[in-house]
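Re-running the complex after MR caught last week's input typo. The corrected sequence lines follow. Everything else is unchanged.
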Amino acid sequence: MSILSFLDRPASYIGKRVPRPGAKRLLAGGGRYVDDLRLPRLVHLAFLRSPYAHARILAIDTAAASRAPGVVRVLTAKDLEGRYTPWVGVLTHFKGLKSPPQHPLARERATWQGEPIVAVAAESRALAEDAAALVKIEWQELPAVTDMAGALAPGTPPIHAELGDNLAFTRSVDAGEVDAAFAKAFAVVEEEYSFARHTGVCPEPRSILADYDQAGESLTVHYSNQAPHMMKEIFAKHFGLAENAVRVICPDVGGSYGIKIHVYPDDMTTVAASLLLGRPVKFVADRLESFVSDIHAREHRIKARLALTKEGEILALDMDDLTGIGPYSTYPRTSAVEGNQVVNLTGSWYRHRNYRARLRVAFQNKPPTTQYRAVGHPIAAAVTEAIIDRGAAQLNLDPAQIRRINLIPDDAYPWTTASGLKFEKLSHQAALEKLLKLMDYDGLRREQAELRKKGIHRGIGLAAFVELTNPGPAFYGVGGAPISAQDGATIRLDPGGSVTCAFSVTEQGQGTEAMAAQVAASALGLPIEKVRIVTGDTERTPYGGGTWASRGAGIGGEAVLQAAHALKQNILALAGIMLQTPPENLDLADGWVTDKSGARRIGLDEVGRAAYFRGDTLPPGTQPEMSATRHYMPKLYPFAFTNSAQGSYLELDVETGFVRLLKHWVVEDCGRVINPMLVDEQIRGGVVQGIGSALYEECLYDGLGQLLNGNLADYLVPMAAEMPDIEVAHIETLTADSALGAKGAGEAGTAGAPAAVMNAVNDALKPFKVRVSSQPMTPQRILKALARA
Amino acid sequence: MLKPEHQATGAGEAGLKAPRFRYLKPHSLAEALDMLGGNASGARLLAGGQSLVPALNMRLLEPEALIDINGLGELTGITERQGVLRLGALTRHAELISSPLVARYAPLLAKAAPFIAHAAIRNRGTLGGSLAHADPAAELPACAVALDAEIEIAGRQGSRRVRARDFFTGIYQTALQPGEILAAIEIPFSPPGRRNVFLELARRQGDYALCGLAFAAEIKDGTIAAARAVYFGVGAKPVEAGKAAAMLEGQTPRAAPDAACAALAAELAPLGDFNASPVMKRHLAQVLLRRALAQLGAP
Amino acid sequence: MSGGTVSIRLSINGESVTREVEPRLNLVDFLRDELGLTGTRWSCEHGVCGACTVLIDGALARGCLVFAAQLDGSRVETIEGLSRSGVLADLQAAFQLHNAVQCGFCSAGMLLSAETLLRENRAPSRADIRHYLSGNYCRCTGYHAIIDAVEEVAKSRAAKGPSRKEGAP
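Corrected-run output:
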């Protein structure tokens, strides 16, 4: 029986808009996040953080703090010595990437404003903060490296003397004959882009509760995090604990977007404190400290050049990316991936064979900077789509038309890009046409023209791009990271006829559990209420990678499907014995074993009871296996690429520089869509996040490395009033790498929105013959381009 | 190079839990004044708390005591009497939107209040608090100036009155002396012919203004008379653009206000912020003036 | 006032609660740590994000900007109470149906804000809904589904007629 035979059945949940069963609890105030946990003898941590971007620590006086009311312990780096091993954020497959060892609390030196220096453990957070204010530190301020170009200028002292300079990583790609292509081009366009540093602003701040049981010598960490198994390995390794003495539990997670998948010194300090004190220790970052301690992302300055024929065909693309990270490459994923993706992805959905790119990643005295939702894609998409629009303008071609000419044709697959990416099968041309129809592109152009006559300036922006999903071990594991590219599911029938499925992908609100329930219920012919999903606990689920790089449905969902299918075979085998019918003649539907025509034979509960309680009724030698475990890892391709096309329609007030977003569209091809509602809101959430980086979000620093706008009044996140309605449509090009054929969808919204919105702004600015190529495109930047301010 | 002993902190002070303070709850204005005077510089007044409490949470302020004046009946109420609208200091922003008296006699306030933050803030934030806090980017101080309001200040020695245009003296600075409590604001009725325009440019709904304008004028025989243009978000306090307003006298609203805009550019000396440089603010101020006039001139 | 604490007696979700509180304890921490009502959350503690939204004397308020000590004699309603009473039932059902909740952290604030919006405005446009909810930060959804859910409930409540009393399902 085909593994997907259930798809034709009306009872299949695949492709259906099933409301998340878990949503009800969340909507009633029943969410259980780390901070909701109350344990006996719990202590709370507050940190004293460096006020300087770069300074030597001369002396720390904790005497007064230690005596403050409610204080259990005050910890400095000295107190933790010997209780951990430092970590280094490098991987072997990023040749030349360098970074020094990092410690939980700073030792001789602080290297970013916000770096944790002293930890105060007290009976409440308020008391810990009171005591922290009594700690006295003597500092010697050092020159701070606060600018990417400056970091690499000869003569700038390296932040880490032993590393020689501030170049953390560099890489180049040179494919085809780039110089020859530019030499013979009809048109060459050049532009410089800048993308601001920004940060995640998770609604639930980073939260960790480490509970070391001294008697049992075991550590349980309740962690708002995306990858519990990875963290289990890391805690065991760096704190010298036995692998099976560490358990990581991820309860409800209030948003993560890649922020909560990196190793943080304050989190490691929390674990160390628990080991030291033998008590549960909780640390929840407050909002102000989140701004200076959560990872930052995306700071880039890019020069790009495009060579075109007269007809608009791209001959070559040449790109230089300078990106600034913090003083350490993050662990265990490194801070090289963002820039590396930009180099790999830029232009990759177009047909040209000549491509050159150079990446330089520079250390700075700013918070550690690394992967955040859509890693590198927003930059690659924005640069590619902006410069191709610029080329279209130069050649007097419609932006849709220049894309038609250059997008990889839908029948050209499999395709290997100039940068070496392998695409199994994408639908760029179909997605573009579908988008143009969905947004009524011609109608919008007519409306735009009419309104221009009245001095109203609207802009239409298009963006085509790819998204990397379902990565295999070539992404991280190959370089030595304890990051699993596979996931597993264990599924079990209970005697009452319900099913429990534990799998290793995690939930942060995107609907992982619902997706898995839909797959399991469909494969087993069960009503969805009969399926219970267990995630987020290293002790209760198979070993796996967790959530990242949009792999939950494609990899986790496949593991669930395979396990469910295996269980189904076992159930039908037993049912066949009980019914004295060949199992090939049986099927499952609606909680019943049926024959091929759908007629009910026996209930699943009857099978379950026979298996568990009535072995005496089964023939000798029958061993029912009412549970099954399957693991899955993609094999055919290192990544499952998806494709997307986005459109933005906006109105630009050219007197004030204010942008009013009127509407946004996304045509998304993520392979098989298990639940369109889940995918749609992931896309929309991603689009809004992308709009944030396009128009609003930036971490503003002064020359001394001080964050100027580290609060929610001054760091502007998108709110409902300024956001447009976002219409989403789907194309489904399945991957052959799995039975389910699902690819990922979690990051596509974020990947393409900045590109679409920037193109729309520049489209609105066309009559003025100016462009904005710096994000966020604030009113100030727009007015500056218009020379009005 | 060598810094003296330094309290190490994060980007703000340590954390977001308020420091310790004594909580005092007076039952009359007189008692509140006694508490305030008696505590010298150690006590702060707690009204709506929508600006004060964030500052406490961030430990930007560490008062010895908070005096909760929310229960004081003497500071509440919206009444009208002989051509004057009187609003108690504890009038909540939300009441400015819902009050029929405000709608009738000081509509500029009703137009401005929806721009203040969000519903939850407006339910507790107070008019008196906003005026006493004197944030340069806040709406109500500019409206008070545009409406020619008088601010009644209560002290232990009695009360005194200060004209709104004299009340705001700098960034977060007012004419309030230590030991005084802003008790009420009195606004002369808008004459029947007065038209009010309230415009604000903010990055997001409810944010502080990059540039805002409280504009009032009478239209006599189709021309502008007695124009008042009070800007906020462009200086240390509300800025009355008197020269620009004077240039508008006798003009029709639809006439190009080039002279007024030029005068405006000269009389504004904006302070830049994260969102806009001084040059940009000057430019935005001119844009708002043109738009206010366009609204006046609209049928 | 004794030993620096303040005596308060207030109504929490219809139940009378009497406590001695430290003056600096804000309402969110009081609800969460003192009463175990963890449905109300803090996320910024400076009044911007709306995760701490509660009703005080029937009006929408930021729990992080008011001290428990101030609330003697007040009536506080949280997501737990408004959920149990059924007041939010149609909104909750609509949110679930439209997938207007992902991580759930902003949901209590969103629901309470939506409820007070619909009490004040029985026929809000999508722009009205966006405007009113602009004090509640969501990072997961694109707000679109939330607007859809509130719009649908507004229409269905209006269809049920004008006799829907405040506080009744």
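None of the earlier attempt is carried over here. The longest helix of chain A spans residues 552-579. The longest strand of chain A covers residues 640-653.
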